[in-house]
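queue> pop job 88
queue> type: inverse folding (structure -> sequence)
queue> payload:
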């Protein structure tokens, strides 16, 4: 299961509305950073037949099969602190992260 907080869902809905198209967002991982893995977000206009689709607060979230094992149970939030804003990920599979918070290990 992948879920979003209301703040995260609202942010995604606003972006999709501003784009004028899109089925939802794809959340995945890629190799990056000093800890090994980083989150990747992209808009989905045409879903891939291999993706797993979740619904959270009116937003469709698509996960590719390779990323699903690392992201199962993920909770996405959206935070604003001063000039910084962005998605925050609470991942029960995560065992550690780098000092700057850009990458993680499982």
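queue> result:
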């Amino acid at each position: 299961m992948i879920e979003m907080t209301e703040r995260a869902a609202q942010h995604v809905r606003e972006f999709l509305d501003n784009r004028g198209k899109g089925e939802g967002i794809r959340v995945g991982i890629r190799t990056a950073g000093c800890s090994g893995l980083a989150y990747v977000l992209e808009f989905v206009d045409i879903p891939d037949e291999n993706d797993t689709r979740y619904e959270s607060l009116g937003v469709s979230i698509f996960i590719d099969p390779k990323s699903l094992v690392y992201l199962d149970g993920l909770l996405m939030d959206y935070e604003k602190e001063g000039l910084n804003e962005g998605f925050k990920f609470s991942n029960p599979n995560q065992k550690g992260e780098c000092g700057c918070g850009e990458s993680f290990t499982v």
